Structures are given as structure tokens and as C-alpha cells.
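User: Some background: our group keeps a shared notebook of sequences we're curious about, and every so often someone picks one and asks for a predicted structure to add to the entry. Today it's my turn. The entry only has the sequence so far, pasted here. Could you supply the structure so I can complete it?
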Amino acid sequence: MLNRQEMSANEMMIANPASPALVKTIEMSKGYIDSNHQHTWHQVIFPITGLVQTKTAYYQHLVPHTSALFIPANLEHESVALTNTTFIGIYINPTLCRTYNQQVRTISLTPFLRQLLQEIRKRCSGSENRDALVRLLDVLHDQIFKEEIVTFQLLLPKDRRLRIIFDQLIETPSLDWSLTVWGEVVGASERTLSRLFLKELKTSFPRWRQHLRLIYSLTLLDENLSIQTIADKIGYQNDSSYIKAFKRHFETTPQQFRMHSHHR
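Assistant: Of course. Here's the predicted structure to add to the notebook entry:
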């Protein structure tokens, strides 16, 4: 179920063509799919609570409460609520702002960026000075295109055989099959699959699978599950191995991530 304000984002854009930016709060219940769509304005989304998954042509982006996602205008995308989620959408008028590159960007939600987005949200909702809002959007542009970005993206394989592996591991991340076994399932040799992972995903199968498991675990951390149970569900033999891998990947522990989520 999707709980929207009465007017959709695209309707808001049509009704306010001279606005530098618009803001919208959207609530999505777990499992809701906002099927393929696009906006004529640029979009920045950031969850207040929960976890959003947004899929574009070749990438699947996970947006936890620690990050924000920039989606350029006219790019088709689909969003799924992996948990009960409330997120803010800021829509930026492309005719009244600086030029944006046509690529999706996942940005770490630093304290500064969080405060900046909230200030833009406040000014979009009020009648404050328009020039001040435009200046804030200039600062946002610089933040979006800083080199230091944090990515939670999972590259979607194009090859049919790799997509089968991807789809099954997303459903059951604890599957611990070797590439030899996967080869029997998808109809390819271990050598062929190994070569495809390096060619398409620029990494080995074990590294890619670990990345997928760790990102999947972000959704489980919003549930009332022990760290050991989460480790079991995603295929780790014990919680210490999971905690070590999580900290290396996200620079925080699973429990710290969970506490931050509950605090927010």
C-alpha cells in the first residue's frame, strides 16, 4: 500500500513549472512496488525510516537511511519498499538549476547533507526567498557530484545465466552453491561463469555474492531478529564472521547500524 499526498509528483511539476524545486513525503508499506516510471525533473530521495530499492536499466540501488539517491530527469526507474518506509522526495527543476550529469548517484547522508536536504525541504514547503532556495540547490549540486560517494548498488547482470543466479540469491541469499553447481543449474561451465562475472561485474563470484548478502542484510536489521539469526539467513557460519564482513564493507557494525535506524 502506498500512502501519498493527494497530488502525485508529476502533477505537482505540471502545476508549478516556475518553482526551482518541490518536495513530497511518501510512505510505502513493505513490499509495495512503484512500477517503472520517470519524472521530467531531477529527483533526490532519502529515507527517514526503512529501506528503498530502486532499479534502473542495469543497476539496482539500495537506499538505507544512511544515504540519499540522485535520479536524473527522464530516467525510467522502479522503486520497491523492502521494509515499511517513509522517504522524502526533492524534485529539482532542470530548467532553473545547474546542469546535472545523466547518471544515478548514491551519496552518503553526512550530517551536513542531511541538514541541507532538510533546509531545502523546509524552503520548498514555505514561501521563503526564492533566490535563497536556488543557492541551496547549488550547494546540493556540489554535494551530489563530490567524488567521495558511498555506493550500495548491485550491478544487474545482463547475461541470462547470471540473471538466474542473481534472482535466486536475492530470494535465498544463504544458498552456498559453488560455480560448478550453478553451472549445472543454468547450463554453463564453471569456467564460463567465472569469466562472465569478471567481464560483466568486474569481480569474482565469491566477492559479488558477499556484497549481495551484506546489502540484503540491511533489510533484516530493521526486523526484530538477533544478529546470529541474520547471519544464518544470509549464509554466514557465525555472527562474528558476519560482523567482521559488515564492518569492513560499511565501516560500522550491524548493531550500530540498527541503533542508528531506531534512533532516527
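Suggested note for the entry: The chain has two domains: 2-144, 158-263. The chain has ten helices and eleven strands.
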